[in-house]
Structures are given as structure tokens and as C-alpha cells.
Amino acid sequence: MLTQFLKRNRRNEDIASALYGAIVAQARDPALYGDRGVPDTLEGRFEMIILHLALVLRHLRADEGEKAVGQALFDTFCTEMDRALREMGVGDLGVGKRMRKMAEAFYGRAGRYDAGLETGDAEAIAATIGRALYDEASDPRAGALAAYAAAVDHALSRTAPAALLAADIAWPDPAMAVRAGTPA
Length: 184
Known about the structure:
Helix content: over 70%
Order of helices and strands: HHHHHHHH
Mean pLDDT: 89
Number of domains: 1
Largest sheet: none
Structural class: mainly alpha
């Protein structure tokens, strides 16, 4: 019985690791960091990881049987953020405080992204992105990223569950989605 539990956790951890790798790779796509795009800073990269993570978790939650994979994916995110903080020289006492802030940022943004996608409210998504990346809810660059987020959500909804679990995601081209949503 215990070996079955351990195998299942290992399966979830392996899936989560592959998914997290795919999320980070997509979040680092150079097209997201071009003109009128995401600032190529630590904060900008963190926000892109949060955006992609929130969207993948949204689709994992939709499948009752894969909620444990979603939890393993979030745990992987937390482990990697902890490791990154320590590599940047943050001491043990500071890591906990920063991790709490990161978790609050994730949950707040993920909730707003989810609500905006559920209701089709692109302006709400853009306002969340604008506040997080540009310190201004109405920044015009945020609209392009909101369009990209909707494209990612749509692509994930068309991804077969087995492909999602294999981290075989046909991400939309950020350059096309960002250009399509960028105001002239």
C-alpha cells in the first residue's frame, strides 16, 4: 500500500517537473520581452511564470483526477522559487517572508486571471497585468498581454489531457498574440 502511494506521488512529481519546465521555457520566450512587452527584469520574468502557471493550473483543476498533479506543480513552483531566492543570497530568515509574498502574488493574480477568463473580461485581465508589470492598470501594453493570456487559455483548452500531462503543449506564438493585441 505504501509503495503505491509513493509511486503515485513520484508520478505526480515527474509530471509537475516536466510541466514546470515547459511553463518556464514559455515564460522566457524572447517575444514576450520585446517593445511594448514584458520588462526583462526579475519581476517581469516572475510575472510571466505566474501567468503561465496560473493558466496551466486552471486547466488541471478542470480535471478532478489531476488536482494532485496541480498541487505537485504548485509545490514545484514554490521549491524553485525558494531555491532561486537562496541562490540570490537571501538568508534563511528572509526566504520565508519573500515566499509568503510570492504566494500571495500568485493567488491574487491567479484568482483575477481566472475570473476574467471565466467572464470573458479582457479588461480585468489587462488591469491585473498592468498593475503587476507596469504599476498602472491602464498601461496599453497590458492589453496585448491579456490577449496573449486568452490565447494561451484557449490553446490549453484544446490540449488533450494526456498531452497536458506529458507537457506537450502547443503554446501560441507570443509574437503573434502580442502583436495582435497591441494597440496601434
